[in-house]
Amino acid sequence: MFLVALYTLLRLQRCYPRRLAWILDNSAFTENGVKRSTRILKSLQGDAEAGKKDKMAVGDVYESSSPRDYALKTNKMNELERRIERVLASRKERGLLRRLGGDAIATATPTTELIDFSTNDYLSLSRNKQLIKRVKGTLSEPTVQVLGSKGSRLLDGDSALHRQIEGRLSNFYRAPDALLFNSGYDANVSLFSTLPDAHDVVIYDELIHASVHDGMRSSRTRHLWPCRHSDVKHLAELVGRARQMPGATSTFVALESVYSMDGDVCPLQEVVEAVEAVQADADDAAERNVHMIVDEAHATGYMGGGRGLVSQLELDKHISVKLNTFGKALCAAGAVVCCTPSIRHYLINYARPLIFSTCMSMSNLHTIDVVHRLLAEGAFAKEMHSLEGNSRYLKGRLGGICGVTRVSVGSGGSGESGESGATIARNSHNSPGTPGTLLDTPISPILTPHSRELAGTLQKRGFLVRPVTFPTVPRGSDRVRVCVHAHNTKEEIDGLVREVERFMGSRSGSGSSVSSRSKLLTQMDHHNHGDMDMDMGTCKMDMLWNWSITDRCVVFESWHITTFTSAIFSLLTITLLAVLFEWLRWRMRVADAAIAASLAIAYNVDVNFNEGGDVEENVTVNRRAGKLLVPKHQQIQRSLLYAVSAALSFFLMLVFMTYNAPLIAAVILGAGVGHYVFHREIDVASLNQSSVGCHL
């Protein structure tokens, strides 16, 4: 066989020498087939020196981690590459270019040597000796299959171990049934792309994870309603509206127990009570068609004895679907959807990420099994208690910088002057004492427009943190996301806070401010979400028809309706603007008529006008005149009138897009009054032909 292969290699080398050009150490070369074969034979016979000279021969090319620029060495950059480079360059100029973690670190120090305040390993189980020993012991058993996945679970990937672990997980998470997924992302995409039908409604928190958005984009329904973040009153209004929709069969409510970027806890108890109150008039279970789906990704492992917030609050019977992930506090990979048997069977038949993905490896399955066994045994109570203490200590130390419970480093702009600093989330309903009952989360975002600079400074000082910027978070809410862990010491936390305070001091010369969003986060009280927008001084924003004009912003944040007087003033102003728009349309028509008259005299064109300035029905124009060029000074006048009219029309369109009934009524009233006053004559042969559109 070797001789046949050698002969084939020689023939190919002689016939197609250019096609066998191999690139080694970033240089292309083509060797004579005989010489190449001789060197391979020498290396196989143990000639180490020849093997060192030919890395391909000894098979150590894979060991080299240096990148090889094959495309640039062998071919010119094609159109696809050029387009990609242009897009990436544009993203870099706007400060939006993403990099992998190692490439984004501001110091040459390996991340393993930095003090970890970034990863989601909340319980520090990646360094837990008991867990490591149990996992190694399980994988070393002779009867245990360690490697391989074999395929999709619908083909050859399924096994008895999968179903056994799903049964144990359903018991541990207090659910009727369970279904494993490769990741929380796959699970959310599967849930929201398959469960909602065409006439169903999905109500989701405005800060819900991107995976839910991706799932909703693939769903059959187009009734996707955002809810103001953790606003129980607004959520109840939307649920009530959904139940009254004709043809709607089910309403899905998408929430997270702990929001990954802000670190705040969902007011789940209040949400359940509000939804139950809306459904109180239902006669039987068939009419109770509101289904809550809770993503427990950032609560699993340390809340509710490791089960999450739903179990902590004993609300398991009220939640239709729970999603618990293993890749954060539990130091494994994958996720489990806790649901009814019918939902599980439905996902098996329709969830494309499950159907068309190779299932998770056997070694990961065993790790999931071991970590949950230890959780059930209470083996991580010490870690939970340590995490709880560290979370509160970090929030207290960061809050002490400015004397508030949330910190925001800023510079310039409107806001409160004299406050330098940071903003950290603290929940007002802490539950101290029992390990695993933590409601103070380990996530503490520091909001600052200088997130990249702050993260880089902390990295150079030996602390592993990451900046989070737009588009991962909303524009204007850039932050450094700080995650504390069970293994962090108070000395490490103090060191981090000192560096943050030092950074704030270096920025104090440029002034400081607390943004509107920072103020909202500072004052957030999870016992009173229904009035959150009113108390925080922020604007209500609705994408659905609404009647309330109080606490509403009209296009600009500065045009904020807060009182009855400001509401009346705003309605009158909008009405007058609509009247002004109709006057502008009339003025443009009169100006065009006057210009046409002057041109008719200049070019000897026979045009007759009535008293209102409009062209009469019987118009005869000298053929030699044709289209006449308007003089420059008159064209400037026409263009200015048109520009003002267009700007005003777009502004009125934006007022319409508030979906607020009183504001829309003011626009319609003004348009009607203006048309009655300025357009009483019927223009039979108008010089300005217009149509209804965004601007007229």
Automatic annotation (TrEMBL):
<dbReference type="GO" id="GO:0009102">
    <property type="term" value="P:biotin biosynthetic process"/>
</dbReference>
<dbReference type="InterPro" id="IPR004839">
    <property type="entry name" value="Aminotransferase_I/II_large"/>
</dbReference>
<feature type="domain" description="Aminotransferase class I/classII large">
    <location>
        <begin position="113"/>
        <end position="498"/>
    </location>
</feature>
<feature type="transmembrane region" description="Helical">
    <location>
        <begin position="640"/>
        <end position="657"/>
    </location>
</feature>
<dbReference type="InterPro" id="IPR015422">
    <property type="entry name" value="PyrdxlP-dep_Trfase_small"/>
</dbReference>
<feature type="transmembrane region" description="Helical">
    <location>
        <begin position="559"/>
        <end position="581"/>
    </location>
</feature>
<feature type="region of interest" description="Disordered">
    <location>
        <begin position="411"/>
        <end position="436"/>
    </location>
</feature>
<dbReference type="InterPro" id="IPR050087">
    <property type="entry name" value="AON_synthase_class-II"/>
</dbReference>
<comment type="similarity">
    <text>Belongs to the class-II pyridoxal-phosphate-dependent aminotransferase family. BioF subfamily.</text>
</comment>
<dbReference type="GO" id="GO:0016020">
    <property type="term" value="C:membrane"/>
</dbReference>
<feature type="transmembrane region" description="Helical">
    <location>
        <begin position="663"/>
        <end position="679"/>
    </location>
</feature>
<dbReference type="GO" id="GO:0016740">
    <property type="term" value="F:transferase activity"/>
</dbReference>
<dbReference type="InterPro" id="IPR007274">
    <property type="entry name" value="Cop_transporter"/>
</dbReference>
<dbReference type="InterPro" id="IPR015424">
    <property type="entry name" value="PyrdxlP-dep_Trfase"/>
</dbReference>
<keyword id="KW-0808">Transferase</keyword>
<dbReference type="GO" id="GO:0030170">
    <property type="term" value="F:pyridoxal phosphate binding"/>
</dbReference>
<keyword id="KW-0472">Membrane</keyword>
<keyword id="KW-1133">Transmembrane helix</keyword>
<dbReference type="GO" id="GO:0005375">
    <property type="term" value="F:copper ion transmembrane transporter activity"/>
</dbReference>
<keyword id="KW-0663">Pyridoxal phosphate</keyword>
<feature type="compositionally biased region" description="Polar residues">
    <location>
        <begin position="425"/>
        <end position="434"/>
    </location>
</feature>
<dbReference type="Pfam" id="PF00155">
    <property type="entry name" value="Aminotran_1_2"/>
</dbReference>
<dbReference type="Pfam" id="PF04145">
    <property type="entry name" value="Ctr"/>
</dbReference>
<keyword id="KW-0812">Transmembrane</keyword>
<dbReference type="InterPro" id="IPR015421">
    <property type="entry name" value="PyrdxlP-dep_Trfase_major"/>
</dbReference>
<protein>
    <recommendedName>
        <fullName>Aminotransferase class I/classII large domain-containing protein</fullName>
    </recommendedName>
</protein>
